[in-house]
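ok so for the tutorial part 2 we go from a plain amino acid sequence to predicted structure tokens. step 1 is just haveing the sequence, like this:
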Amino acid sequence: MSSAKTFLLMALFVLVGLPMVAYLWETINELLALKVDLVRIGISIPVLALLIGFLTIVGRRVNAWHSEPEKT
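step 2 — the prediction. this is what the tokens look like for a chain of 72 residues:
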């Protein structure tokens, strides 16, 4: 994988992943403050699944990029 593709993948991860992390962070904050909102928790479960899936895809891509032999 080229450096440009890796950069674009990381940029896409930041653009898509940041709002997911922020939403989950706020949900955890509210739960720690003992404010239980079942709708928010219900939304957070699929968001967490999407984030884990997205992290898995990014991790595999980066791992494949590192395992490629260097071109000279």
